[in-house]
Amino acid sequence: MLNDKVELLQNIIPKTLDGIVRSNREEMQLEYATEQDLAKIHKQIPGDFYRGALRDAFIYKRIFPALQQEALYLVGFMDERGRTITWHTSRIEGFDPETRMVFTASGSLYWVEDFVAGEPDSQLLINVCAILHRDGLGSGFGVPYFFY
């Protein structure tokens, strides 16, 4: 009985970014941002003042082929008030590879301490799931339901 619940939970939690979207994949895909993607939004951003620093971070894009639209987002761990939380930014408007600063649609600046190598921590993938549901995209694309 307990093993069945553990197995069910393991099947629900995505193991890869690509594994988050489980239906209607022809309408929306998630991919890691490439250097070419980041070059399109290259901006000089001073590293003087920022809202937060993210570590073990990654930038991903939501791709909507039929609309020919893509949007980039930053996800990572942030230390806030003595605890570590998962963080997902609004759409990225600018990225400076020199300072590793990100400027978002909400007007916030973030500093990326480091980018994760390989697949990110499952907590960050769960965060992407929760945000997709918050944004009204989760159920239509078979995204596992998590909330904060």
Task: Describe the largest sheet.
Answer: 7 strands, mixed
Structural class: alpha+beta
Order of helices and strands: HEHEEEEEEH
Distance between the termini: 27 Å
Strand content: 25-35%
Helix share of residues? 10-25%
Mean pLDDT: 92
- CA-based shape: globular
Low-confidence stretches: none
Overall radius of gyration: 16 Å
How many beta-strand elements?
Answer: 7
**How many alpha or pi helices?**
3
What do you see in this structure?
The protein contains three helices and seven strands. With 148 residues, the protein is α+β, with helices and mostly antiparallel strands. Strands 1, 2, 3, 4, 5, 6 and 7 form a seven-stranded mixed β-sheet that branches. A hairpin with a 4-residue loop joins strand 2 (52-64) and strand 3. It is globular and about 55 Å long. It starts with a helix and ends in a 14-residue tail after the last helix.
Describe the structure in brief.
The chain is of the alpha+beta class and 148 residues long. It has three helices and seven strands; from the N terminus they run αβαββββββα.
Task: List descriptors.
seven-stranded mixed sheet, alpha+beta, 20% helix, single chain
Question: What's the helix and strand layout?
Answer:
Elements: H1 2-12, E1 29-32, H2 35-40, E2 52-64, E3 69-80, E4 83-88, E5 92-96, E6 101-104, E7 109-112, H3 122-134
Parallel strand pairs: 2-7
Antiparallel strand pairs: 1-2, 2-3, 3-4, 5-6, 6-7
